[in-house]
Design brief:
Distance between the termini of chain A: 33 Å
Helix content of chain B: over 70%
Distance between the termini of chain B: 40 Å
Oligomer: heterodimer
CATH architecture of chain A: 3-Layer(aba) Sandwich
Structural class of chain B: mainly alpha
Number of helices of chain B: 10
Largest interface: A-B, 27 and 21 residues
Helix content of chain A: 25-40%
CATH class of chain A: Alpha Beta
Number of strands of chain B: 0
Radius of gyration of chain B: 19 Å
Number of helices of chain A: 11
CATH architecture of chain B: Orthogonal Bundle
Strand content of chain A: 25-35%
Strand content of chain B: under 5%
Shape of chain A: globular
Bound molecules: adenosine-5'-diphosphate, magnesium ion
CATH topology of chain B: ABC transporter involved in vitamin B12 uptake, BtuC
Largest sheet of chain A: 6 strands, mixed
CATH superfamily of chain A: P-loop containing nucleotide triphosphate hydrolases
Chain lengths: ~240, ~290
């Protein structure tokens, strides 16, 4: 089994606060890896370190065999890493269509036409500004944007945050579809139960340290553990 | 009286068009790179003197065509060597740097071309007034205004319809996310800087044809251009357009009634607008639609 991404011993700081304290993880090629943990555990910081947005002070990151540890963000993304940031971060003043023209045009199957087939709603709203979209539409746009660089690895930070249950299911369905397309996926979620249902591998992060790594099924089977490690919100969400 | 008023409104519009051209470049650079480019007037001077230096060989039209891109190339080098290392630091650093650069450019121009003004010849047919009645409207003045509006239209097309322009606009909203989408944001900032400096270079050539050349010719345009940005609303390019024309006309009209206040009125206008709309005229709307 080859790895799309490996991180070894990441130490990341915001100023003087030491947030990640030796995080190691791997995303296997063609699989979905879930990274869980309660609020403030350091999940977003981990993803930002992987993307070079908040570079780790120590440790090593390898993406598709390249040592990307010191690379600038744009170069990491241009390797074929799609990033769906926390809070979606769509360009609020740009139209939907313009949002879709920002990503680097890496060759591959994804084009704006194909995106519009997958997300008909975005085509209907292509002339609307980003800020006029609903939360669900913004999430779709953020995912669409990441797909347009034709990623080999897709990194998503809490894509279900703040969405209605029906829309959450749609988002998870799309993530599974991307796996079927052969894209490796690293999924950060608060919604532990649902992510474990679609994930192959799982990690749990607590206070900047990995406290579980193993199969997603095994973790899902351990009720008490899911509840205590992944935080209270694990309770609220189940695949209804 | 009406003629005098018309004369000054025309003057104000022409001066305002220059404010707009300068302010748009300043705005582009400020919005994407958080650099307050005090050397912008210096690049206007560079554009003017390049046109002066090459016009014996390539003529007026050749100079008009070549001087702005050559100025932009100098801008690219300055950005790469001097300004890029300061990105991400306190904006005070780049402000001090460009402030110093403005003096250096002025002194260097004086050193190379001498302190006296230089004439810059324009084609004879452009120098003619349109009629005896409207003696102040020369073909060249109309030409200048037309050029300014062509430049603004091209800038609009660039920002609205090309991927480069869309990425520049996205970058002014959230540069980090643009980088995370695989875009080389260093290159993006360089190209954006070059576009801004191109506009300064164009202003230089056009101004040279009207007023001749002087090493200090950029200084007077800089403050009003900043004020045009503030009046229009920082971050809004249509605001910059309206702001520049507005303060140009305001100072032109004031020149009729209180000549002494024609410069002060710009500041008064800014104060009044900021008191009623603290974010400027178009501040709430954000970037151009
Ligand atoms: N920009 C920042 N500056 C300082 N501290 C931060 C910043 N962002 C996050 N933190 C802190 O880092 C810790 C981890 O945050 P984060 O990675 O966002 O957690 P998660 O995504 O798991 O909720 C938290 O204690 C948070 O307060
Ligand atoms: Mg987070």
């Amino acid at each position: 089994m080859t790895a799309a991404l490996t991180a070894e011993g990441l130490h990341t700081y915001y100023g003087k606060s030491h947030i990640l304290q030796g995080v190691s993880l791997a995303v296997a090629e063609g699989r979905i890896t879930a990274l869980l943990g309660r609020n403030g555990a350091g999940k977003t910081t981990t993803l930002r370190s992987l993307m070079g947005l908040t570079p780790a002070r120590q440790g090593k990151i390898t993406i598709f065999g390249e040592d990307t540890t010191r690379w600038p963000t744009f170069r990491i993304a241009a390797q074929g890493v799609g990033y769906v940031p926390e809070g979606r971060r769509i360009f609020a003043n740009l139209s939907v269509e313009e949002n879709l023209k920002v990503p680097l045009e890496r060759g591959g199957p994804w084009t704006i036409e194909r995106i519009f087939k997958l997300f008909p709603r975005l085509e209907e709203r292509k002339l609307n500004r980003g800020r006029q979209l609903s939360g669900g539409e913004q999430e779709m746009l953020s995912i669409a944007r990441a797909l347009l660089i034709n990623p080999r690895l897709l990194i998503l930070d809490e894509p279900s945050q703040g969405l209605a249950p029906l829309v959450v299911r749609e988002v998870f369905r799309i993530i599974q579809q991307m796996k079927a397309e052969g894209i490796s996926i690293l999924l950060v979620e608060q919604n532990a139960r649902m992510s474990l249902e679609i994930a192959d591998d799982a990690y749990v992060l607590d206070d900047g340290m990995i406290v579980y790594s193993g199969g997603a099924q095994e973790l899902a089977a351990d009720e008490a553990r899911v509840r205590s490690l992944a935080g209270a919100s694990a309770e609220e969400w189940t695949l209804a | 009286m009406t003629l005098l008023l018309l004369f000054n409104i025309t003057n104000g519009l022409i001066v305002g068009a220059f404010y707009v051209l300068m302010a748009l470049g300043l705005s582009l650079i400020l919005n994407l790179s958080n650099v307050i480019n005090f050397a912008h007037g210096g690049f206007l001077v560079i554009g003017g003197y390049i046109a002066y230096a090459i016009s014996p060989y390539v003529g007026f039209w050749g100079a008009l065509l070549l001087a702005p891109p050559l100025t932009a190339v100098i801008g690219l080098v300055v950005e790469r060597v001097l300004i890029r290392p300061l990105y991400g630091r306190d904006p005070l650093y780049s402000l001090l740097l460009t402030f110093g650069l403005a003096f250096m450019i002025e002194d260097l121009t004086r050193f190379i071309f001498g302190p006296q003004g230089k004439p810059f010849a324009i084609p004879a047919f452009l120098a003619q007034p349109l009629s005896n009645e409207l003696f102040f409207i020369t073909g060249y003045r109309l030409f200048m205004v037309a050029m300014v509006f062509v430049a603004i239209a091209l800038l609009f097309v660039l920002l609205r319809y090309t991927r480069l322009g869309i990425r520049i606009r996205a970058g002014t909203l959230d540069l980090e996310t643009v980088a995370a989408l695989g875009i080389n944001v260093r290159l993006l900032r360089s190209l954006n800087f070059a576009v801004g400096i191109f506009l300064a270079g164009l202003s230089g050539v056009l101004a040279a044809g009207q007023l001749g050349l002087e090493p200090t010719m950029g200084t007077g345009l800089l403050m009003p251009s900043f004020i045009a940005i503030i009046v229009g609303g920082i971050g809004s390019l249509p605001g910059t357009l309206v702001g520049g024309l507005l303060i140009g006309v305001a100072s032109g009209v004031t020149a009729v009634f209180f000549p002494a206040a024609s410069e002060a009125v710009i500041y008064v206008l800014m104060a009044v607008i900021l008191l009623t709309r603290p974010r400027g005229l178009f501040g709430e709307e954000g970037m151009m639609g």
